[in-house]
Design a protein that fits this description.
By secondary structure, this protein is mainly α. It has a domain of 79 residues. It contains 10 helices and no strands. The longest helix is centred in the first third of the chain and has 41 residues. The protein is elongated.
């Protein structure tokens, strides 16, 4: 008797499962199609990203390796295009190459390229902070106090590894302007900063002892 009841229950469950699949056949087929399309799309997107990365990498390497003074314009054009690709690795490297080799004299255009990196490129947090610091370095000689602070405030008000570098840049900026009190304030922040870069901290201490001691 128990065996018969077990067989009946099993048959009942199988019948319910079969009826469920028959009743929802179209929904199940649609779900399978959606899953397959999603997997194919995800794979295709990943492959596209890998291929794009390879293309940008090859273009950067070829452009920089073939750079000579006589083809500055072509080099600059290619590197600007790479910056605008918004690649996390090669877009910053392209801008650094432009700056280091003085391929572009228009500071506004260079700052626009910095903004492409900072505002539009998916960078690792500390890589983005490094780009911000490099933007400040680029502008330091001709910037007004407020403008330089506006650039560096995201670092100064953070716990970034580049914070002490930003503080040091502002300290040196004020020192060059003979604003010694402001300069001392930034140097002292470096000294008291728990995670201050050791070399930066040493340089700040030297400046305080040698040039700003009372």
């Amino acid at each position: 008797m128990d065996e018969d009841i077990s067989i009946i229950n099993s048959n009942t469950r199988n019948e319910k499962v079969r009826n469920y699949f028959v009743k929802n056949k179209n929904k199940i087929i649609l779900l399978i199609i959606v899953l397959v399309i999603s997997l194919v799309a995800a794979y295709s997107y990943d492959r596209h990203k890998v291929n794009q990365k390879k293309l940008v990498s090859n273009k950067f390497n070829l452009t920089t390796l073939e750079y000579i003074d006589s083809n500055k314009d072509n080099t600059l054009s290619s590197l600007i295009d790479i910056v605008n690709k918004k690649d996390p690795t090669y877009s910053p490297l392209a801008l650094y190459f432009i700056i280091d080799n003085k391929l572009l004299s228009d500071s506004k255009k260079i700052n626009d390229l910095f903004e492409v990196l900072i505002e539009q490129t998916s960078l690792d947090k500390e890589i983005k902070n490094l780009v911000i610091y490099k933007k400040a370095l680029f502008n330091a000689d001709g910037a007004q106090e407020n403008d330089l602070l506006d650039i560096l405030n995201p670092l100064i008000n953070s716990q970034s590894v580049w914070k002490s570098h930003a503080l040091y840049l502002m300290a040196e900026y004020f020192y060059s302007k003979n604003q010694n009190q402001k300069s001392k304030e930034f140097y002292n922040q470096i000294i008291t900063l728990e995670k201050s870069n050791p070399d930066i901290k040493q340089q700040a201490q030297k400046r305080l002892n040698r040039d700003l001691s009372e």
